Sequence to fold (244 residues):
Amino acid sequence: MALTTIKYAVGVDGSVIGDGAFRVALTEAKLHKATLYLIAIVETGLFAASIEATAVEKRYRQLLAWYVHRCNEFEVPSVPLLGSSPNIGSLLCSICAEQGIDCLVVGRRGFHGISRCVRRSESYGDPCNSSSSSSR
Amino acid sequence: MQQQQQQQPLTQASGDSSALIGSVSDYVVKNAPCTVLVAKTEPLTDVQQDPINRVVELEEAERQSRIAEAQSAPQHDDKRVVLEAEEAERARRIEGTRAPARRARRTR
Fold:
């Protein structure tokens, strides 16, 4: 029976939330001796100008280099992936399917007041780290 | 069918009509083909600064340490070693010149 490495993935965007998710993913990957896929996706679309997208892409490249450096410090093998899409969630899911990711770590944004009514977040109500599994 | 589902707008994909805009994490929780771990964001600390700033800080610190290494100790130490060696050599020479004179005095 061939041994397969567990694959963790984390979506990073340079935000505090993304950084928190990265730290959780790094800890999990270290614990399970897994490979960590670092996924940064540049949002493109109607409202995102090409110049801005290029600047964001450059920033994300630096960001990925930094996260790879952090992974090397903790002796966790990492694979940086950079993509661009108008629908970040969709691309994130398709990357996970293509790469055969076992566990994806995402950060959650806290919504309050009016923004909570307008923007719903299922993950917000959980007081701690939570997981959901999919059989697909 | 699956492609159609992926092409749906985020709000429909998240499957709740009460929300006008769904978040990426919600979409991923609903649609990801793997286990999804939703990480809790901890309160702000110095670790959670902008990562890019930290890259710049790290590079700057490395550069400074390299400059400091290049400029400081080794050169001075080398000079000091050379000076000490010269000093020892000079002392030996002086001692060498005095020793025969002493021997001559003793023989007399």
